[in-house]
Amino acid sequence: MSFLDLTALTRSYGPVRALAGIDLAVEAGTRTAIVGPSGCGKTTLLRLIAGFEAPDSGRIVLDGQTMADGAAFVPAHKRGIGLVAQDGALFPHLSIADNIGFGMARGEAGRAERVAELAYIVGLDKAILKRRPHELSGGQQQRVALARAMACKPRLMLLDEPFSALDTGLRSSMRKAVAELLENAGITTILVTHDQAEALSFADQVAVMREGAFSQVGTPRDLYLRPKNRMVAEFLGDAIVIPARIAGGFAQCSLGRIAVDSADRRDVARIMLRPEQVLLKRTSSEGMSGTPDMLFAEVTEMEFAGAVCTVAVRLLNNPDPPDAAAIGSTPLILKKPGIEAPAVGEVVRVSVTGTAHVLE
Ligand SMILES: Nc1ncnc2c1ncn2[C@@H]1O[C@H](COP(=O)(O)OP(=O)(O)OP(=O)(O)O)[C@@H](O)[C@H]1O
């Protein structure tokens, strides 16, 4: 049994099936990210775990205690779960100190000290404790929301897109700070986000959600490099998906002969490469002659965007053609550092690093 076990959870709103059978195991002290497009059911799932709503069917067991199962239902305030919402949801009329200490009784001994300690833990200067929420930046407000959620000493923390209102730089530093903070406090965490990079960098375990169900659950590395299907592959980043003939641990495709990660597959399937696996080296049309075993392409588009640029190339040959018609039919879209991105019209030598992943 895991720290949190969700079994066959369903929830509908009238005709809308928000959750269509969710199974998930979360180990104690870990970080799980649930990522999926808008409307796929992420917030509904958090609300069920938090105890704001009951599932139509299925079971929620937290730390060995049943939270929801048929008629059994433990209300939110008895679950020991903290929730930080997207907008922080601070009380505008209360000071920062009273926001943080909201869950503690006003006259409770040591309240002020505990509030100051929590402010310190989340990296807030105690000078702001007297202020009101509107006098704080977005990042500071999120820290207050986190401190308030931590004040109740939760055994599980639920974060519902808590960084989405922050700008890019602050977003990644907050994400890192929050991850560290929760890890140091030993709090098991579930983060909901629609940002794939955020999910991959934050979590030990990522669940990709679509239409109320999980498409795949695994480590960030596994999901990124070994997605089950094209949907998961493309949801988690740019992907090059090409038809191939697979045998003996290799794929024959428009990129030539490439090692694959399934030694036992022997069929026609789609393989996936991440764009960063395709390397380009500048050459010239003359450089192509006398090297039939090498793969060449012509740059057809280059979108300059500073550090990372988008480069489209059209293949010019295939050293090991499975199907001559496929050669050059689809341009490859790659990301390259701006400093070394080739120009439109240039001929480049193409090679592949690592193995390709065979999709289902
Ligand atoms: N209280 C409700 N009444 C009716 N329909 C609802 C209710 N709450 C959610 N839904 C519907 O359930 C589905 C899942 O909604 P949910 O808010 O869980 O998605 P989400 O993945 O969190 O979306 P977003 O990323 O946009 O916040 C949506 O179709 C939504 O319209």
Automatic annotation (TrEMBL):
Highest rank taxon of the organism: Bacteria
Pfam families the UniProt entry points to: ABC_tran
UniProt keyword Iron present: yes
Keyword terms, alphabetized: ATP-binding, Cell membrane, Ion transport, Iron, Iron transport, Membrane, Nucleotide-binding, Transport
GO molecular function: ATP binding
CDD domains in UniProt: ABC_Carb_Solutes_like
Span of domain ABC transporter: 4-236
Alphabetical list of PANTHER family matching this protein: SPERMIDINE/PUTRESCINE IMPORT ATP-BINDING PROTEIN POTA, SPERMIDINE_PUTRESCINE IMPORT ATP-BINDING PROTEIN POTA
UniProt protein name: ABC transporter ATP-binding protein
